[in-house]
Design brief:
By secondary structure, this protein is an all-alpha fold. One of its GO terms (cellular component) is plasma membrane.
Amino acid sequence: MPSTLLRLAVWSLCLIIIGWAVFYVAQFVAALRIVMLPLAVAFLLTALLFPVTRRLRSAGMRPIYATWVTMLFAFAVLGGTGWLIGVRANEEFPRLVTQVQATAREVQGWLQTGPLHLQPTQISEWIDRIAGQITQQQQQITQTVLTGATVALEVLASIVLLLFVTFFLLKDGDRIWAWFLKAFGSATPRVDRAGRAAWVTLSHYVQGTVAVAAVHGVIMGIVLAGMGVPLWAPLAVLIFLASFIPIVGIFFAGAVATLVTLGAKGPIYALIFVGILVVEQQLENHVLQPLIVGRALSFHPLAIILVLAAGGIVAGIAGAAVAVPIAAVIYRALPELTGDPPAPLPPGQSARELEPGPPDADTPGPGPEGPGTTPEPPKETPGASATPAPAPATPDPAGPGAASGSPDTASGTPGAVSGSPGAAPAAPEAASGSPGTAPAASGTASGSLATPSAGSRSPGE
């Protein structure tokens, strides 16, 4: 078999195996979506809220208290926002209905007197068709309402699980990660690098996306409020939430806001809103997104569309919302798992400073003392003299015995001069190994502890 065909066969087999694995993993995740989806959202919330917990810990607060304060802060923000949106929607919904009815009459008159010159009977037929379509879907709507209790229980269980996972990730995230690494043995450093790189990517993506979505929602909310469009606050929140789904989300939220503007203010205001939305979206894509999010999500738009489609198939709208950050985390962690990149150099050091030193003993290599510190002196080698050889001493007129005092003191402590046990006794003129012995006339050896004057005698003489 030619080598080209063999390579193609191997690649085809690998693609089949990968596709099979991805399919069954997707089926597994879809079956456990009530667990996997809250877990993924909990990681996103942890990446968003952990800076608050870290600041509280740095201020001296205990981890348990810092976690509770962070969770209560998040509840206050979400609850306050939801309450304000509900109040505004309740106040402005009747006005929206009135404006939509007025706009419908204007559109009907334009269809009759405009360039289309439609007859009232034709308009009535279109309205009847729309009503018939709604009636046909009534059975499906009823079934959806009947199954709403089951869906509500699943949503409630997912929310409870989400809160528990987020709480413990904020409180004990470092301990959970250390426990998780114990299962990898010798591969622990590589898995640790991959996990930390993935966490940095996830944190940058979530925090940057929240900032971009907030700017997007505030600008569009100001535009809608300036036009006098009712429900501008709920529409601004919808635009904010839809910004978490790249490319697709903004089209959906923009379409809803445009329809509300069309029904409330007419086609001129709707066209103005669409123009402002397009300009703002271009500024976001080319200025805000690269500046704030950076390279945390360096995906091609086609890849983003495919990832969104896969997430939507597995877990619906929520799956599409978490699919892109999960793909970004996997994309960033895989090179750390499959390769072995060098560790970054500490600040202020060059690669030359971290290279091993030469093998000779006089130039020590890198060690705990670090560059720029004084290395330790070389250790003594058995059999080598601990002090330099003294200069020849001038003979004492009183003789050797007078200088040394006694045979015991003349020889000094065994090994004091030579530095090793069993060394020959020192000569009288060089004996200085123990306290109380006379030094040589030319000076004192470095190993003595007492330096009596030359010619002094021992106490026993």
